[in-house]
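Workshop exercise sheet. Pairs work together: one partner reads the sequence aloud, the other fills in the structure field after running the prediction. Swap roles for the next sheet.
Pair: D.N. / O.F.
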Amino acid sequence: NGILHRDLKPENILCIEDAKTKQIDVKVADFGIAKKVGRARATSTCGSPGYVAPEVIRGDEYDAAVDMFSLGAI
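Structure field:
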C-alpha cells in the first residue's frame, strides 16, 4: 500500500484469537513513525535497534524492504 511501518518488532504484532472459530488474526499496531511513500524512498533513521535494517542504520535511502528485514528479525 506504499506505507513503511519502520518499527516492526514483537511488541507491535498483535495476535487475536476469535473465541468462536479459534482462528487467530494477526494485526500490526503502532504506526506512529510510519510513512506513506508510494514509490518514493525514505531516508530518516528510525526504528528499534534490534530489528532495523542495515540501510536505515547507515542512513541510506530505503523502501519497503526494510519492513521485510524487520519481519525476518522477528
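Discussion prompt: The longest helix spans residues 65-73. What would you look at next?
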